[in-house]
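@channel sequence for tomorrow's demo:
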Amino acid sequence: MEQATFKVLLQRIIVICLLVMSISDVGKALLGTSIARTADSHIGGTKWAYSSSHRTGRNTNKCNIFVADLMREAGGSVPQRHWWGNSPIGAGEWGNSHSSYLSGDRCWQHVTSSQVGDIIGDGVHVGIVTGSRLTTSAAHNNVIKNDFGFRSSQRPMVFWRYTC
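structure tokens (generated this afternoon):
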């Protein structure tokens, strides 16, 4: 093969690779937007309230259940504590940057800065990044959107990104 022909072929391969990578990045951004939109569609809902009997019973925190249900609704999944039944990981795992549940799941990636659709946790509470310095999460009475995780008084947050 002539050197000029080889050079043209190589340039075309590089362009195709860049296009595929760009399409992949766009797909990931759309996934994050879809996760955030799904979370925001539940603002005000009481299904995951402390007093709700949903899944774990009344008078239990359900922020991790909100994240698991939401991810399922958006077409994703979260790691389970047990292979039997429905037992999504808790807020403690979401707040652990070294979580074996999440790091062992090919669909989850620990990231150091957030973007829309990421899961944010501090080890006690967990929510979904739904805007610039905004999160949506299950609070005591209902699903709310506020600045959880981005307040200067809060301890460092951990971010996880769904990539599948």
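heads up for whoever presents: The chain has four helices and six strands.
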